[in-house]
Amino acid sequence: MTFYMDVPEEQLRKERAKARELRKTSWWKNRIAEGRCYYCGEHFPPKELTLDHVVPLVRGGKTTKGNCVAACKACNSKKKDLLPSEWEEYLQTLSHKDHE
Ligand SMILES: [Zn+2]
Predict the structure, then answer these.
(1) Distance, CA 93 to ligand 1 centroid (Å)?
(2) Residues in domain HNH nuclease (predicted)?
(3) CATH of 9-98, one of 1.10.30.50, 2.60.40.60, 3.30.450.40, 3.40.30.10
């Protein structure tokens, strides 16, 4: 069973606005300058990295430095609204492939 929190639209709007601001900070620019996806660990050009909320906003996550990571587009679109624990299961299938 998947538990979805009832996050008010107002809160989502506020957190998304904060994310837009966070993308302009030197903190974020340093993150993407490293060019590494937080999830798969692959290297990408900074422009291909997106800001991902570890705990998605729709699941009650906030736009804080601790909850925002640089993710490649592939990981970001696969992760979507999964919580870290749900996403962990997906990552494990990835590492399985590496050992095949
Ligand atoms: Zn990735």
Answers:
(1) 14
(2) 26-77
(3) 1.10.30.50
